[in-house]
Write a structure and sequence with these properties.
Blueprint: H1 8-13, H2 18-28, E1 36-42, E2 46-55, E3 60-69, H3 74-82, H4 84-90, E4 94-102, E5 107-113, E6 122-133, E7 142-149, E8 162-164, E9 167-175, E10 182-190, H5 198-224
Parallel strand pairs: 6-8
Antiparallel strand pairs: 1-2, 2-3, 3-10, 4-5, 5-6, 6-7, 7-9, 9-10
Length: 226
């Protein structure tokens, strides 16, 4: 099944489960048509395969990542991913992260990322919707969180920080078949702007997601022992 990247307006106006369901379908039936294999990582704690698709308009890639956190239950992964205050403690690149405003169905979030010197920091203003699908006879309990950058945000910009306006990240989760871990699907696109060479962007994509999985695993382990 094919799907197109959701726009910010579509995310805000979305009032049914169809978009969530399209992302969740990737957990059991990965759709990599049009994508090429990028990299693979395997450790005792997680496994990960990343595919990418070139986008002509930006000269950058969209990514699909399929993985498993082998010993972390899905409730914990979801809780850690959604806990913004906790992320500021375990994510060394997170300089700021907080909710600007929220309703019962939508969060508007500010996020500043500390890029390594000598690169400028980036910040994001994005909206996020989450949905929990309870277990049925044919599928386990599943979670989906869709995040999309707000290109028209009036949120005050910070001097020396580059505002990223073209951004999307969606996370889908469900228990592993053995019930001990969590299957993960991550769809993302990020146009960091500024004068970053393509090789830097590609290097960040190749190393950043595996590093994120490793750090997320550690954060989950510490979260359960809090």
């Amino acid at each position: 099944q094919h799907y197109k990247s959701i726009t910010f307006i579509e995310l805000v106006q979305m009032d049914d489960d169809s978009q969530f369901s399209q992302y969740l379908s990737e957990l059991d039936s990965p759709n990599t048509e049009g994508y090429t294999f990028f990299t693979k990582n395997e450790t005792d704690g997680y496994s990960l395969e990343i595919y990418r698709k070139y986008e002509e308009a930006s000269g950058l890639y969209k990514y699909k990542s399929y993985g498993e956190l082998k010993s972390i239950d899905t409730e914990t992964v979801n809780a850690v991913y959604n806990d913004l205050e906790y992320r500021k403690k375990w994510d060394a690149y997170c300089a700021d992260l907080h909710v600007i405003s929220e309703t019962s169905v939508l969060q508007n979030i500010y996020w500043r990322v500390a890029y390594p010197w000598p690169m400028s920091h980036r910040d994001y203003v994005f909206s996020r919707k989450s949905k929990i699908f309870e277990a049925t006879e044919n599928s386990p309990k599943r979670w989906c969180i869709i995040g999309k950058g707000d290109p028209s945000s009036c949120h005050e910009e910070v001097k020396g920080v580059i505002r990223v306006k073209d951004y999307e990240q969606t996370l889908a989760l469900q228990p592993s078949k053995n019930g001990l871990g969590t299957k993960v699907f991550l769809y993302y696109f990020d146009n960091p702007g500024g004068a970053l060479p393509t090789w830097v962007v590609n290097w960040a994509a190749k190393t950043g997601v595996p590093q994120f999985m490793k750090t997320l695993q550690s954060a989950c382990e510490k979260f359960t022992s809090k």
